[in-house]
User: Fold Phosphatidylglycerol--membrane-oligosaccharide glycerophosphotransferase from Halomonas heilongjiangensis.
Amino acid sequence: MPIPPALSPLRRPRWWVLLVIGLWIGHAAVTVTLLPLWGLVPIAAAWLGLGWLLRWGAPRHPRPPTRVWPWSLLPIALWGLYVYLADSFGNVDLAAVFFHLQAGMTDHGGVDRKLAAVLYNLSMVALLVSFIWLVRTDHRWRLCERLLALGLLASNPLLYGITQRGAAIVTDDGAWLERRYVEPTIQQAPEDPPNLLFLYLESIERTYADRERFGDAYADLEALGEQGRVFEAVRQLDNTGWTMAGMIASQCGTPLMPAGLLHDSQFEPLGKVVPGIDCLGDLLADHGYRLTYLGGASTTFAGKGVFYEDHGFDNVLGREELRPRLEDPEYLNNWGLYDDSLYDFALEEIRRLDETGDPWGVVTLTLAGHAPHGYPAQSCIDRQGEFDGADILYAVECSAWLARNLIERLEAEGLLENTLVVIASDHLTMRVSAWDELIRDERDNTFMLLGPEVPMGRVRRESSLLDVLPTVLEAMGFEIEDNRAGLGASLLSSSPTLLEQYDREFVNARLREETALQKHMWDGLVPERPPEEAAPKQEQVVENPEDATGEEPAEVQ
Assistant:
């Protein structure tokens, strides 16, 4: 059957090539700029119209095709990687990429994300093949293609942070943070140490508390805050802006500087996570606490399981461990368990631990607020109505309500009588539907304390997640050295924080140069080298015996 004349252009490879490139440009623009999905169509159509007008792939005065390999292949592939990461996680941090590559990126987002990865790879192959055909066929593209390669490299956000600590670049000093680091130690414990419930709310930053911009999305957390101590102006430093980095910053008092080239095997997942420093779990385990971590996502992703197992936790429960306990094993999102299921299991675990009579600590990590669209639980949909699949404020309201509901259930059972409750965001949210409103003003993380001994009220201090560890320890009644632990200072004391002493950009600049604290954090991952034989000491010969005074040189300050 002959092809109708209207469809005859489809027989020409030129139009398929331009269509593939146009769809990729449209998808990239929609993903990076948060335009609505339908925006892909006019962008691709505009590209095709431009290709028709300029006769791309079919110049009026063609030259013979040339078998060349475009310089832009690698820059295009890097842009494809950035778009995939932005679509998966909402934002891209180069240090996070380095860390996740070494700590493990398996089980990131479930079957849907694995399918997306396969489709991205196939579409990237189609894009590269299409671009090769265009460059080889149309000499005009060959002439400008090298400039395009430079433009793609210069504009790729993935490469903006190339000097971040994740690359393990050595500088002249690199010990500014190490000199300010205080090893976390407990000098004295209370006679009746309290239990600890630490709720990490994925991406639920305190910025959402602004009702003028975000309505009542944060209202349930505001109501909880009225019962305890709320800390404002908890800023985000570099290398604390993704989940593992935020948890390590708040539990260990230091930014997460990835192992980088310090890793003993660059091609295998990390066997340990920050093994050189003590964190909250280590300190509590040493004082007889039974510790459990529960998260909806897989514990193999980003080394979460390794981190908690190596730092004092007895039970580490994630998607693989909790899914068999679900009434409906298929009630899962792309990452793992919904938060209502997670909190049900947390309640069961707290009941079990409370019966032992030992002090306990439970840490949970939710998923509802995960960028870019969130994963609200069915119980929230029953309460709030249908979810449109994009409005992040719906997910914020869900996360806040579920946290409040859990606290109320625990209180009703008398399980919080001697318990400090910590509610915190793991980091500021990445690109979401409310992005333009979020970045209108200064942003800060959620951090609040609830408990019988916690003074109520609000405290506004320039601080960061580094200050969470010493604050939590002192709120639990533990005495620590000079109100400090790691790089943080207790917000319940008068000791100044890093951000009260130094500008945030100054601290971030020092962080990018730091090597000493990085080595401290990853102590044990550096391959041991056989000791070198010391060179025989040579006796110094002086020209004049009177110069041999035996004095030591003055110490350089």
The chain is about 40% helix and 10% strand.
